[in-house]
Every structure is written in structure tokens, then in C-alpha cells.
Write a structure and sequence with these properties.
Layout (H helix, E strand, L loop, with lengths): L6 H10 L5 H8 L10 E11 L2 E6 L7 E4 H8 L10 E9 L3 E9 L2
Antiparallel strand pairs: 1-2, 1-4, 2-3, 4-5
Length: 110
Amino acid sequence: MPEQPDLEALRAAAHAAPDFDERAEAARTGDGPFVKMPISRQTVTVLLTFGDQAHLKIASRGTEPLRVPAADITADTGIPPQDLPGKRLTALVSETSQDGMTVREYRLDA
């Protein structure tokens, strides 16, 4: 029978890693004030850009726009920030009780 990994040692090693994100770990495990919410690919519409921010409309958020870095969308899609307003995209959207919504991995809506 294969030996089971030492989960505490693995967790300690992850915590020692320079890119360890305590919030992400807490959300993943359900520990602390960060509650893990489902992640889903949703349609988002870029309403406008202002400075380095893009204002997104996300159906599950209601009418309040969400501000995100326009550079994140540009990095994922290749669309220059000045061309983002009016674009319909899909993105992975998740929620945490502490931070609100997290949007990542933007794709141009086909």
C-alpha cells in the first residue's frame, strides 16, 4: 500500500512558499472569515474604462458595476484598454464573503 503524504508537512511547505496566498488558502479550505463560494464562467460586459480600471457588468452582481484592472483583461485577451468598452467577454467569477467578487481568466465571447 502506498504511503500517504504528510498533509501537515505539505501545508507547512505551502505556507512557506513566497507566493502563498493566505486568503486563497482560507477560501479554499473554508477556514476563517473567508467562505468558499462556487466559481463559474459567466458573461461580463465592459461598460467603460476610466484610467487603469475597467467597469464590468456581471449578471449575477445585479446593477452595480465591478471595477477591475483593465490590464488584466488586456493580458488575457490581447484587446487594448481603449478598445474594451462594449466588449462581451466570459470570465471565471467567484465570490468570497470578505472580498466580494474575483474575476479572472477573461476570454473574448465567441
